[in-house]
Structure formats: C-alpha cells, structure tokens
Amino acid sequence: MSTSHSKKAAQFLSNPENVTRHDKTFWGLRQKRDIQAHQLPEWESLREHASQIKEHTLTHLADYLEQFSDNLERNGVVVHWAKDAQEFNEIAYGILETHKVRKLVKSKSMLTEECEMNDYLIKHGIDVVETDLGERILQLMNLKPSHIVVPAAHISRHDVGKIFEDLGISKEIGNHDPTYLTQCARYSLRQAFLEAEAGMTGCNFGVASTGDCVVCTNEGNADMSTSCPKLHIVSMGIDKVIPDLDSLAVFQRLLCRCGTGQPSTSYTSHYRKPRPDGKMHVILVDNGRSDIIANPNHWTTAKCIRCGACMNTCPVYRRSMGYSYSYFIPGPIGVNLGMLRNPKLHSGNVSACSLCLSCDHVCPVKVNPGSQIYTWRQELEQFGTENKEKRYMAEAMRRVYGSYTIYDAMVKKASLVNYVPQKLMDIKLNPWAVGHTMPHIPKKSFHEIYRQAMKELDEEKKKKG
Amino acid sequence: MKKEQLFDKLRQGVTRQFDMPTQPVDGIVYPDVVQQFIEMSKTVGSKVIEAKTTDDLNHIIRNAYPEAKVFASSVKGIKADLNPDTVSTPAELNGTDVGIVQGEIGVAENGCIWVPQTMKERVVCFISEELVILIQRQHIVNNMHEAYKRIEMPEKGYGVFISGPSKTADIEQALVMGAQAARGVTVVIVG
Predict the structure, then answer these.
(1) Looking at the whole model, is its pTM more than 0.90?
(2) A206 FRET partner, CA 20 to 30 A, in A2, A97, A280, B76?
C-alpha cells in the first residue's frame, strides 16, 4: 500500500534527529504565524477579502492581464508572453543574448524552478548566480529546494560550512557559525551583483491598475540584483496579477505573516519603470495556469500566493520533508499543483495527508488545500492511479457491512484470528501489519454482551417487580 | 504565444464570475500610532531616534555612527562624502558605511517605511552597510491600507517599503542581520 511519498518519507524518517529538527523548524514558523494573526482583530476579515479578491481576479483574469500589460508598456516595459516552460526559457535567453549578458544574478523564483530555467541558461553559456542565501547554498550543492520560502531548511550548518570551505567562500576552516557563513556569502555575492550585466526577479504581485511588479524579500537580494545591472527581467506566472494597490495592501499584510511569522518582509519593492538608462522586460508565463483556472473542481488552487503556511503547519510535511514529494513544490499545495500538472506522475503524493485540514485553517486565501486533496482521492480511479488493494478491501467491506447476515457470521468467527501466529500476519500480503500489531479480538462481540446485559436487566426488573 | 489566444482561453474557461468584496477591510488603528511605530521598528531590528525639527540631523547621524567614514546621501541638508545623484555607476557606492535616505510614509503595524526613488542610483538604499531613514512624525499611519492610499510613485518609477535591516534565517533558522543589503537601520523620526 506504500505510495511514492511514503517510501521516500521512510528514508527521511530513518534519521530521527533530522526529523525532530525539521519538525521543530516548521512548527516554530507556524507558531510565529499564530502570534501575528492574533495581533490583528481583522485577521479573518483579511483572509475572506483576500479569498474574494482572488476569486474575482481569476474569473476576470483576461481583463486584468490586458490592463496590466497595457500599463507595463505605457511605462516603457517590454512585455513577453510564454505558453510553456520551453517558450519561457527561449524568451529569457533571447533577451540575455541580445544584451550580450554573460552573468545573470537572480532572486528567488519558483517559476524558474518550474521551467528549469537555470539549467537551460547554463547550457547556453550564461553564468547564473542565485542570490537568495538558501537558493545559493542549494545551487552550490547542486540540490533542489525542499520548501518554497525557506528552501534550504533541511541543510545543516555543517554541510553549508563544508561546501563554503571547499569552494573557498569561507576561509576559517571549521567555523560553521551561521552569522559567519552568512557574511562569507555576503562578500562573495557582492562581487556577483557588481559584475553581472542583468538581474532577474520573480514577482509576488503584479498590480493591474498601475503596472507595478511587486517583489517581497528579506535579504534585499532582489533589489541588489536590479539596482546594479542595467537590465532587469521579471519572470511571473499569469496568476500573480491583482486588481489595484488597495488589493495589494490586503495581500502584503497576509503574505509574510503567514509565511515566516514576520509582520512584513524587510523589503516590499515596487518596480514600475526601467531605470533611466536601462531596460526592463516582463515575461508572463502560462505553463498550465489557464488549464487550472478552467478546471471546474480545482480552479481555486490558482488562488495560492505561495506563502508556504500550509507546509509549515502540515504534520505530514514536517515529518517527511520536501524531497519525499514527487513534485517540485511540496506540502499540501504542492500535492494539489502536482495533480494539476500531471496526475499520473504525481498521484503518489495524494496519500501525504492525514485530512486534519490544518492547512485549510491557516491558508490566507482559503485555497483549502486539504479539502482539495480529499477530492483528488475520489478522482484517482479516472487516472488509473488508485490503490487496487484498497479498492478490493473497500468492495469487501461494502459487502460485509451491507448485510446483517454476513456481518453477524463474520463477527461470531472473528476471534479465530487470535489463533493465527503473529509471524503469519506480518507477511507482505497484509499491508496493515506494517507499523501495526494485530489487535486481540474478544470472543464475545459488543452486540452479544449488550444483548445479554439487557436480558439480565429485564430479568432483574421482573424479579423486583 | 499570442496574448489574444491566452485571453480567449481564459474567458472560455470561466463558467461563473465573482465580484470584488464590497466593503473595505477595517484595518487596525492604534491609540498612539507613533509609539506603535517605534515599538514595531525595534521589533523588526531597527534603532529609533526621535528628533525635533530644530535639531541638527547631521550631528545626530554622526553621533549614531562615530566609527563610520563614508557617508552617502542626496537628501537636502545632509552632509555626505558620496552623492547617489552624481556618481557615475552604482558600484561607486560600494564601500559606503552609512547611507541616508528620506522616507515618505511610516507604517505602525509593521515598521515599513515607504522610500521612493528620488536619487539617481537607488542602490544607496541597499549597498550601504548601515542605512538611516528620515521620516516626519506626522507621516506615520496605522496600517498598509492607509499607506497604499497615500503612496505616490516618483518619476523614476521605483519605490520600496523598508522594514528593518536585511535579514536571513536560511542557515538552520538562525536569524542573521545583513544578508545582502544593509546590516542595520536607524529610523530618525523628525518633528
């Protein structure tokens, strides 16, 4: 009955120390989120507004994209449209090639992960430098993010120290203090910012009424990436557009409080025009988003603002880590996005949910990722990815519980199971035995005991009466 | 991809359209907005200095950073060694100890300060080791709803809300100030 997620999770669980650290890290973020939420009496109203604004925007998206791109062009920004990852990579490379860019500094963007842009650009000879510290560590270690907001949370300070020593970024051998290592990265990246001919950022929010591309960072790396080089490329999914600055206020207040439990990111940067002597390009990417919006059962998944709150709170994510999921975005929202991308490939993640629905309760835009996962489980048969054993078991249970005769007969004989040796029960054919001890089944069922007790009670009453 | 194709697909994919919420959010209002702004600025890692309109700001800034050698600013009346308006490249500002910029709106709920790009090279806000943001006492508002109603984008088309110094917790969740941009921020409230 093991799914791809549960098999990979078992590997992660083999090191209890790592599991505890991982679990505590993300539960800590969840607790910080709660503290922020409790400080605002209007919290629930904010969530409801955010949800309604997203529902409105997604169901009027063509109009808002039109307004957004018109404003971008009016502001002197060059707008590109990419149907899929391939088109996106080609456009990005085309812009860099035209401007003879050799080194590109970029801030964090899950879209470029989705399109595997770095590999594409590096193959074409561009030196791509990730500048978010977590992303930079992963790039140097040749690893993928395990979380969308804190991508290197699964890496220990010692592993960071070692890779920095190997690459000459850190000079003090054996000094694995996070402050020291962060300063080492700062010096190394400072050079990259000054040398690069282009900077790329993602976009948290595109404001239709003004054409602002809004980027939220704590490190200031998006701003370093775009204040030094003259060329700025913004890569954004079409789902990032929101109506106006009043809407932005709602999302800005929620994003960071939900994600990291801070009242705001250190920097909320608004890019409206290219620098006076520079160029600004915005690449708007579909890559399946228009299909999500057209999906009658799951279109609300497109409301997600990628804060990461659902991962932080998820008991399964916290104890299984991002790499246990087959899709590059893990956790509750990642399970959903993976199913929307390719259900056959990513059905193995749908089991990574206890249906506690904690994610539904913390999601700032009410995507309700847990409830969505429940719906996906009902749909697995369409893709031929449902668990066959479970289907047979369900069919058998339907027959037993659907008939009093069969049920009573089964219950009467159930205690015979006690005589089967434990070893025989542990065989692989009985997946239930994995992680469980067989219960001892009493000789008399509750029904029998109840009936007998009632009978005795009646007799006593008669005697007294 | 042609945008018209995308727009057609998006319009056809929607079966039911939703309206915008009719009522605005009732944002939090503080009994003492300046006091809340000061507390929140400290929470996000800034130092706060309150100054009178008649105070000598140059004196206050020099006092706050007695060790600093290179000051950079284009704010009128502020003495500096480098001027982001007149440097020929952003790289010339690398090595700035203290950058001084003018903030337009302070936000009490989260310590954000709106800094519009009035200077030629905005990198001064990020490349300086320490950043001083000047803000008028009467320009402090309660929350982001109020702030977004008031912000004005400058001609240069860039503005940023800054809430404390550059920070990261990417290595084992240990909070470190000064990831890529300013290691420290001092907010000077004037008035």
Answers:
(1) yes
(2) A97
